[in-house]
Structure formats: structure tokens, C-alpha cells
Amino acid sequence: MKKYVFLGGYDKTDLILFLAKMAVLSDKTVLFIDTTASQKARYTVPAMAPTQKYITTFEGIDVAVGFSSMEDIIGYTYDGTIDYDMVILDVDSLMAYQNFGIEPLDEHCFVTGFDLYSIRRGLEVLEGLPAPTRVSKIYFTKDMLPDEDEYVMYLSQGLKVIWNEDIIYFPFERGDQNVINTNQRFGKIKIKGLSKDYIDALEFIAEENLGLTDGEVRKAIKIMEKA
Question: Which residues does residue 136 pair with via DSSP β-bridges, in sequence order?
């Protein structure tokens, strides 16, 4: 059971749901844990009679909300165990990073926009890394300018971060946000209407970071486009 960690103060819920759905369509069992302060999944993922903490199933993805640690989730389950192919975590604090037993060998992605809050809150987590850790950069930006990456590199000097070479860009597109808003209103995970750039970025992360094969990704995208 490998952990896939999406770090930062930027809103990552919908990105993770798209990726988790692709994994489920590739016959993987997936647990998505929202550890963030805002707990956006509580408000955008449909759940029957949600309580302070709960696990609900949404389009084949188990979604855990309101838990303070991995032990807290294990204690909540019927048999005191969790067994998934993938555990995907949305993390925006060092405390959550530590409480959920994340290790340097787990897959790490740093997700940020270029507002100061997103960058600095994400860097707070990176500052607490216990050992040198390889991290991928995912940027939500309109311009995709070299100085944006240079700014992140400057702020992260001296941290225990080994940045992966590739940078994954998600453009700000009104059409993409409209698709996301519609998904939230109707309780669905659909990609029809997303820009090619957005879908290309999803495919890249699914292969390079989640370890899905090219064939699995193509199959998942085709199913999600027809949904």
C-alpha cells in the first residue's frame, strides 16, 4: 500500500478526484484522505448523513474526512485494518504530514498557485521534511513563466527537497473551472469539456506519479470522456 502525497495550500481536491477516478478505472483500490484544514471534500463529495469523521464511497473511491491520523482511520474501520492499492493524501500542514506516517519514499507532489498564501503554506510542509525527499512540481498558473519556477526554487533553497526535472502546468481556463463546478453540483467526476492542456497534465501525473500504464490511462480517459 503506497502513499501518494499532494502537498500545499492550494486547492487540490478536484485534481485528486480526477486522478483517483483514473486509478479506479484501472482496477486499483483507492483511499483518498482529506487532511486539510478546510476539509473541502466534506462539502463537495456527496455523503449520506456525514458526521465529524467518516469514510464514504464516491464513484468507486473511498473518501476519508475528519481523521487526525492513519491510526485514527484504522481504528474507525470494521476490522481495524486498511488495505488499498493506493492511499492518496491531500496535505496542507506539517502536523498532518507527520500524523499520517508519510515517508520520504512515498510519492510527493508540491501543488501551488502563485499567490503568496499557497506558496508559503506549502513550503511550511516542505521545511519539515525529515530527510531528502524527491518532489514533483505541479503549478496552477495562467502564464507559465520561467520566473515563477525560479521564485519557488529561490524560496525552497536549503530545504531537503530533490526536485524532479519535469514541471506539470495546469492553465487557468474558464472552461475547466466550469466543468469542475458542474461536477461538484451534480456529484460526478467527468472530464468532458476540460481543456486539452488540463487533460494532458492529468495523464502525465497518472503515469509519472501514480504509476499507471499508458494503456490504463488511455482507457480511463476514454471512459471518463464518454460518461
Answer: 109
Burial class, 210, CB count within 10 angstroms (exposed 0-12 / middle 13-18 / buried 19+): buried
User: How far is Cα 227 from Cα 225, in angstroms, rounded to an integer?
Assistant: 6
List the one residue out of 29, 79, 77 whose CA is nearest residue 53.
Answer: 77
C-alpha distances out from residue 94 to 7, 52, 106, 178, 226, Å = 10, 22, 15, 32, 39
d(CA 210, CA 2) in angstroms, rounded, equals 10
Average pLDDT, stretch 31-38? 97
Nearest-angstrom CA–CA distance, 218 and 212: 10
Indicate the SS3 state at residue 48: coil
* pLDDT band, residue 226 (cuts 50/70/90): confident
| Amino acid identity, position 188 | K
pTM of the model: 0.96
